[in-house]
Amino acid sequence: MRILLQRVKHATVYVYKNECSKTSSSISKGLVAFIGFQKHDNEETCRWAYSQISTIRVFSDTRGRLKYALHGSEHGLMLIPSVTLSLTPRKHSMNFEDAMDFSTAKKLFSLLCTVCREWLAVKAGTFGSHMEIASLVDGPINVFQSRQESPT
Question: In degrees, to the nearest 5, what angle opens at C-alpha 145 toward C-alphas 100 and 84?
Answer without folding.
Answer: 40
